[in-house]
Design brief:
By secondary structure, the protein is an alpha/beta fold. Helix content is 36%, strand content 14%. It folds into five domains: 40 residues, no CATH class; 60 residues, ADC-like domains (N-terminal domain of TfIIb, Single Sheet), CATH 2.20.25.90; 171 residues, Dimethylsulfoxide Reductase, domain 2 (3-Layer(aba) Sandwich), CATH 3.40.228; 127 residues, no CATH class; 133 residues, no CATH class. α5 crosses α6, α9 crosses α23 and α14 runs parallel beside α22.
C-alpha cells in the first residue's frame, strides 16, 4: 500500500469531492465515514434564486439573492451586481446588514399569527346572531346598539380570550361593522392607520385605497413617530430631498448630528468612513458616546434636546466672522440668489419698539403684476430702491412661465439684491424679539437699519431685510446699532458661544472652532461641508426649530445643492420613483380629490381623551409679543385650526356627511357649491358643529378603526396608557 502523503493532489481532490467513499485501496487515508456531510449539503440546496429586498423602515432597499426550495425561503445573501460608481469612488456593494440577513428566519417565526382571532365574547354573540338568520349588518347593529352586549366584549379587552375564527367569518363581521357605521354615523367615522409605506408600498396602498374609496379617514404616521423632519417641507415644500448616501464621500467637512449612521444606515455608513481617507474631518454631536462618535475627529457632547442652542451659537460665529467682520464673496452671492435673506419685511409698532409683521409685496407699493400679493420685494442696490425679483411664489402661478432663480426682474433687467439696508439709510429702529430660553414673557430689544416705503394710499411702511433681522436675532452687533447686543463670544447673552455652553455643556471653544472650520471649508471648497442629522434631534418638542437652526448653517455657507455639501437626513434617501402613480392608487385620487387624510397625533389626542390630562401651560409657547394663545387649551387650538381650514380633522362634523348632503338637497341645493353653502350656513348658525369641538359626544366617536402592519399600542401610539383606558 502506498504512503498517503505521496498521493497526487488531484487524486486527493477527487477523494474529497466524493465525500470519502473510495475503493478498498484507499482506506488508509481516512477510516471515518463522511455521510454526515449530506445533511449539511441538503441544508443549502435550493431550487432557484430570486431577487428581493426587505420591507423594513430603513428605506435602504438593499438587493438580496433569496434561495428558494420547495416554495420556501431557505437562506439569502447579498446581491453583488450594483453598477460601479467609477474608479475614484467606493462601490455601493455589498449592501445589506445583519438585520436583513436574518429576515428569512423572521418570515417563518413561530410567533407569527397565521389565522384570524376574535374576542371570545364578541364571537359568541356574532355566531348566535348569524345562526338566528339575521342579516350581517342587522346582526352587528343588534350587538353594538345594545349597551349591555357592547359592554360585555369591550370590558373583555386586554384579558386574552381570543378565539380562532375563519376568514369568512371575520371578513363578513368587518364588512357588516363598516356598512353599519357608514349608514348610521357617516363614512368619516371609519379610520385607519398603517406605518410608513416604505415597508411595503403594496400592503399600505391596499388598505389606504379601501378606506379612501369608502370615504374613510387615513391617518398619518410620520408626525406620530417624530422621525420625519417637518423643517424640510417648511423650508422647501418637499420631504427629505437629500443626496444619495454615496455623496457623503464627496464631503470635505462632515458633521454627524443626532443620527447614528452605522446603525440606521448600515449599508451606507462606509461612505462616511472612507471619506476620511480623503482628509475629510468628521465631527460627532451626540449626548452619549454613540457608535458614530468613534469615527469622529472631534466630539461635541451636547446635552439631549439642546441642539438648537449649539446651532444658534455656531450661526452667531458664522455671521460675525464671515458676513460682518469680512464679506465672503461665495456666501453672499449664494444667499442672495437662493435664500430669502434679501427680501424686505414690514415692521409693526409694538409699544416703544417694533416687531416683525410680514413680507413687503408688490401690492404694497402699487407695482402692476399678476398675483401682486404673492410677490415679495427686495432692495435693489443698482436702483437704490425696491424691486420685484422674478421667480417668487407668485411667479409660480401667474402663468408667465418665468419661475426661475435668475437675478432679474419680470422684464429681464438684472438685479443686485441688498442683503442689508445698512449704508442705504441712517435710520434705525429697535426690534422686540421674544426669548423663550428665560422666564415666560421675556423680550430682547435690538436695533437694526430700516427704510421707509410709501404706499399708493399715502401710508408709510417701515421695512428691513430678513438678513438684518437674522443678525439682530442672533446677537451679531454692528457699530452704531443700539440695543441689548452681546459684546463678544464670552458674553452670556443670547445667542453667543458662552450662552450655549451653559445650556448644552459643550465648551464654547469647541463651538467656535467647529463653526469656523465648517464655514472656512465651505468657502474654500464652494460648499462641500455636510451635516447628517436625524431622529436624535427630532424626538423633541419644537423639533422643526431644532432642524431649522441646523439647516441655517448649511444655507449660510452655500452648501445646499452642492455635491458633498448640504444636509443629509438620517434615512439617506427616500426616492420613491413610482410616487405619482402610487399616490393615485393609494388614496383613490382616480375617483375623488382631495384625499381624506389627517394627522395621527391630533386624532389620537382627542379620541383617547389625552387632552383631558394636558398640563402644558400654553403661555410658555406663545409669543409674548402677540399673546393670541396665552390662555388657550391645546385642544381649543386644534378646534380653531379645524374651523379655519388650517388642519384636516375627522370625524369632521357632528352630523353624518351623507345626511348633510341629503338634507341640503331636500332644501333645494342642486350643485356641489350650493351644498357647500348650505353646510356653511348651518355652521354659522351653530346648527352644525365641528366634531373636534366635542370629542366626547357619542355622535363624534370613530366607530371602526383599521390597523395593519402595526402594533399601535406597543409602538406607534405614544402614550399608550390613554389608549388602554379609552
Amino acid at each position: 500500500m502506498s504512503d498517503p502523503t505521496h498521493i497526487p493532489w488531484w487524486q486527493r481532490l477527487t477523494y474529497l469531492r466524493h465525500g470519502g467513499r473510495i475503493d478498498e485501496n484507499w482506506t488508509e487515508l481516512s477510516p471515518r465515514p463522511r455521510d454526515w456531510e449530506a445533511l449539511y449539503r441538503r441544508r443549502w440546496q435550493h431550487d432557484r434564486v430570486v431577487r428581493s429586498t426587505h420591507g423594513v423602515n430603513c428605506t435602504g432597499s438593499c438587493s438580496w439573492q433569496v434561495f428558494i426550495k420547495d416554495g420556501l425561503i431557505t437562506w439569502e445573501t447579498q446581491q453583488t451586481d450594483y453598477p460601479s460608481l467609477g474608479r475614484d469612488f467606493p462601490e455601493y456593494e455589498p449592501r445589506g446588514c445583519p438585520r436583513g440577513a436574518s429576515f428569512s428566519w423572521y418570515t417563518y417565526s413561530p410567533i407569527r399569527v397565521k389565522h384570524p382571532y376574535v374576542r371570545g365574547e364578541l364571537m359568541a354573540m356574532w355566531r348566535a346572531e348569524r345562526a338566528a338568520g339575521r342579516d350581517p349588518v342587522a346582526a352587528w347593529a343588534s350587538i353594538v346598539r345594545h349597551p349591555e352586549r357592547r359592554e360585555t366584549y369591550i370590558r373583555a379587552r386586554g384579558k386574552g380570550g381570543l378565539v380562532r375564527a375563519t376568514w369568512e367569518e371575520v371578513t363578513e363581521l368587518i364588512a357588516a361593522a363598516t356598512v353599519h357605521t357608514i349608514q348610521t354615523y357617516g363614512p368619516d367615522r371609519v379610520a385607519g392607520f398603517s406605518p410608513i409605506p416604505a415597508m411595503s408600498q403594496v400592503s399600505y396602498a391596499s388598505g389606504s385605497r379601501f378606506l379612501s374609496l369608502l370615504g374613510g379617514t387615513m391617518l398619518s404616521f410620520y408626525d406620530w413617530y417624530a422621525d420625519w423632519p417637518p423643517a424640510s417641507p417648511q423650508i422647501w415644500g418637499e420631504q427629505t430631498d437629500v443626496p444619495e448616501s454615496a455623496d457623503w464621500y464627496n464631503a470635505k467637512y462632515f458633521i454627524i448630528w443626532g443620527t447614528n449612521l452605522p446603525m440606521t444606515r448600515t449599508p451606507d455608513a462606509h461612505f462616511m468612513v472612507e471619506a476620511r481617507y480623503n482628509g475629510t474631518k468628521v465631527i460627532g454631536v451626540s449626548p452619549d458616546y454613540a457608535e458614530y462618535v468613534k469615527f469622529a475627529d472631534l466630539w461635541l457632547p451636547a446635552k439631549a434636546g439642546t441642539d438648537a442652542a449649539l446651532a444658534l451659537a455656531m450661526t452667531h460665529v458664522i455671521l460675525k466672522e464671515f458676513y460682518v467682520e469680512r464679506e465672503t464673496a461665495y456666501f453672499t452671492d449664494y444667499v442672495r440668489r437662493y435664500t430669502d435673506l434679501p427680501f424686505l419685511v414690514t415692521l409693526k409698532q409694538h409699544g416703544d419698539a417694533w416687531i416683525c409683521d410680514r413680507l413687503l409685496n408688490a401690492d404694497d407699493v402699487g407695482i402692476h403684476t399678476d398675483l401682486p400679493e404673492w410677490k415679495p420685494l427686495i432692495w435693489d442696490e443698482e436702483r437704490g430702491g425696491v424691486a420685484l425679483p422674478n421667480g417668487t411664489l407668485g411667479s409660480r402661478w401667474d402663468g408667465s412661465g418665468r419661475w426661475n432663480l435668475k437675478l432679474e426682474d419680470e422684464t429681464g433687467v438684472s438685479l443686485s439684491p441688498a442683503l442689508t439696508l445698512r449704508g442705504t439709510t441712517q435710520e434705525t429702529a429697535l426690534i422686540d424679539f421674544p426669548y423663550f430660553g428665560g422666564s415666560t414673557g421675556e423680550i430682547i430689544q435690538r436695533g437694526i437699519p430700516v427704510q421707509r416705503i410709501q404706499r399708493p394710499d399715502g401710508e408709510t411702511l417701515l421695512v428691513t431685510t430678513v438678513f438684518d433681522l437674522l443678525l439682530a436675532q442672533c446677537g451679531v452687533h454692528r457699530d452704531g446699532l443700539p440695543g441689548d447686543y452681546p459684546t463678544d463670544y464670552d458674553d452670556p447673552r443670547p445667542y453667543t458661544p458662552a450662552w450655549q455652553e451653559s445650556i448644552t455643556g459643550v465648551k464654547r471653544e469647541l463651538a467656535i472652532q467647529v463653526a469656523r472650520e465648517f464655514a472656512d471649508n465651505a468657502d474654500k471648497t464652494h460648499g462641500k461641508s455636510m451635516i447628517a442629522l436625524g431622529a436624535g434631534t427630532n424626538h423633541w418638542y419644537h423639533s422643526d426649530m431644532i432642524y431649522r437652526c441646523i439647516i441655517n448653517l448649511i444655507l449660510l455657507t452655500g452648501c445646499e445643492g452642492v455635491n458633498g455639501g448640504g444636509w443629509a437626513h438620517y434615512v439617506g434617501q427616500e426616492k420613491v420613483r413610482p410616487l405619482e402613480g402610487w399616490q393615485m392608487l393609494s388614496f383613490g385620487l382616480d375617483w375623488t380629490r382631495p384625499a381624506r387624510q389627517m394627522q395621527g397625533t391630533n386624532f389620537f389626542y382627542l379620541v383617547s381623551d389625552q387632552f383631558r390630562y394636558e398640563d402644558l401651560e400654553t403661555r410658555s409657547l406663545s409669543s409674548p409679543l402677540r399673546g393670541r394663545f396665552h390662555d388657550v387649551h391645546p385642544a381649543d387650538m386644534n378646534a380653531l385650526a379645524a374651523r379655519l381650514g388650517w388642519l384636516p380633522s375627522y370625524p369632521q362634523f357632528d352630523h353624518s356627511s351623507l345626511d348633510l348632503v341629503d338634507e341640503a338637497r331636500e332644501r333645494g341645493a342642486r350643485t356641489d357649491e350650493e351644498v357647500v353653502q348650505d353646510v356653511v350656513h348651518r355652521l354659522r348658525s351653530n346648527e352644525v358643529r365641528f366634531a373636534a369641538e366635542a370629542p366626547d359626544d357619542p355622535r363624534n366617536f370613530p366607530r371602526v378603526f383599521f390597523v395593519w402592519r402595526s402594533n399601535l399600542i406597543g409602538a406607534s401610539g405614544k402614550g399608550h396608557e390613554y389608549f388602554l383606558t379609552s
